[in-house]
Specification:
2 domains; 7 helices; 196 residues; mainly alpha; two-stranded antiparallel ribbon
Length: 196
């Protein structure tokens, strides 16, 4: 009987060690998978870790993880070309800012020629420059509301891909806030999209 207990004890001990070995292997496999996933996610900018008073929160943006590079590239190209089309449509449907400004300038010049004294001329010129500044501010706000977020999104994506130098982004954003320069910015964005 003691021989059977001895054999049963070794079998039980072997079973316990087997269960522990499987549990440890599972623990290390899951740990390695989690570490790989966190590394993969942080590499793609999809991982955000927030520290709070009551703990830590890890947020993962799944859209950045599951899209393949090719699918993301195609989406970026579509987004950019849609933005370029919207900008060109906006410019086409709007009266030319140069013609508008030149018309105002000629009207102001005629009015200033008819003015009798220097103070009146200065007042006319002051009103004209104020109206130009107000119009420029309205245009900047309108263009910012229409396009600034989308332009920032695509330029950041191109910087992330190494297709656009970071120092060129402020210039593109500035051009997108001016009715005079926005067509050139749209052409630059279209050229970037065609490089994808």
């Amino acid at each position: 009987m003691s021989k059977h207990l001895y054999t049963l004890g070794w079998a039980l001990l072997g079973w316990v060690f087997g269960v522990l070995a499987v549990a440890m292997a599972w623990y290390f496999a899951v740990g390695a998978a989690v570490c790989f996933f966190l590394g993969y996610a942080s590499e793609r900018g999809a991982l955000q870790i927030d520290h709070g008073l009551d703990g830590m929160v890890i947020r993962v943006r799944m859209s950045r993880l599951w899209f393949s590079g090719r699918a993301r590239r195609k989406q970026l190209k579509r987004d950019t070309l849609a933005l370029v089309t919207d900008i060109h449509t906006f410019v086409r449907d709007r009266p030319s800012p140069i013609a508008e400004t030149m018309g105002q300038h000629f009207a102001v010049a005629n009015e200033m020629q008819q003015a009798s004294d220097e103070a009146t001329k200065q007042a006319i010129w002051g009103r004209y420059t104020e109206s130009l500044a107000a119009q420029s501010d309205r245009d900047r706000q309108e263009l910012g509301q229409r396009f600034a977020g989308r332009v920032k999104y695509v330029t950041d994506a191109y910087v992330e891909r190494g297709l656009l130098p970071p120092e060129k982004v402020p210039q593109l954003l500035w051009h997108c806030q001016s009715t005079y320069w926005i067509s050139g910015a749209a052409s630059d964005l279209e050229a970037l999209a065609l490089r994808l």
